[in-house]
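Hi everyone,

Forwarding the result from last night's run.
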Amino acid sequence: MYEFDYSRSFNHASRGENHAHAKLSVSAVKDIKARFVSKQATQTQLAREYGVSQNAIWRIVHGVTWNDGGQDDGTA
């Protein structure tokens, strides 16, 4: 009978800027948050500048993704 080996590590998907499809770096996310909070740019302006959707910027500034400034938690 097969016995599961719990000692093996699981290969989890890359997150944040290490993800294969990531468009943003940690420094870009920090810049986005800082500029939005200080009212230097709107979400739409930031989206155009960084080549992502306005919804992606909204999710960043509201802590849905990239909530610690370094990793995309993948929740939605």
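The mean pLDDT is 81.

Cheers,
N.
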